[in-house]
Amino acid sequence: MTRKTDRGTGKGFSNLISLDLAFLDNTLLPCLIHDSLLFKNLGISAVENLIGTYCSFEKQIFISIDEVKKYKKEMQQIVYDSMFLKLDKDNIAFKVDWKKKT
Asked: Is the pLDDT of residue 77 over 70?
């Protein structure tokens, strides 16, 4: 008898996020930081649900997220209302464009 299991990158990242949220919820950990890389292999609805889950926590959760416009307007608004720093081609970190060769 064999059991099929999802061993894809998205599932792995989803499990990691769940573990992180469990640590945040059940320990003295004061905050959580998730980079956009974790969201790349998750479906749109999964990321939207995750953002809703993040909003349910009283502790701070910091995320880096790309392509916000592909999500529902409600989720976009949550991201924009919660944003404290936006980096793009005009607003670069440390005043250095790391893509330019020197």
From this structure: yes
